[in-house]
Amino acid sequence: MTDSPPPVRRWRKSSASADGGCVEIYADERVVRVRDSKNPDGPELHVSRRGWSALLDVLKERSS
Q1: 57 in a domain, yes or no?
Q2: What would the pLDDT profile of 9-57 be if each residue is shown by its tens digit?
Q3: Is 4 a domain residue?
Q4: Prediction pTM value
Q5: Residue 8: helix, strand or coil by DSSP?
Q6: φ, ψ for residue 50 (rounded to 5)?
Q7: Does some domain include residue 17?
């Protein structure tokens, strides 16, 4: 049996982001990973898909 390589993660950040102080996200079917764009090899925050959705709802509500 051969091991297949891990999938390549395609990190995303907002198109409105400038060069500094940005976060990037990578989402799969179970979890959203968040990291500092200036430190891509640093720690990641893992948030459930449900938790991520709830966070976005709160941020949208507070921005209006």
Answers
A1: yes
A2: 899 988 777 767 789 999 999 999 999 988 999 999 999 999 999 999 9
A3: no
A4: 0.75
A5: coil
A6: -65, -45
A7: no
Enter the tokens of residue 3: 């091991």
Host domain of residue 52: 23-63
* One-character DSSP codes across 7-56: PPP--B--TT--SSS-EEEEE-SSEEEEEETT-TTS--EEEEHHHHHHHH
Residue 57 is given by DSSP the state: H
The number of folded domains in the chain is 1
- Residue located via tokens 């395609």: 10
Tokens of 23: 């976060």
Tokens of 19: 């060069």
The pLDDT, as a whole number, for residue 1 is 61
Do residues 26 and 12 touch, judged by C-beta distance below 8 A? Answer: yes
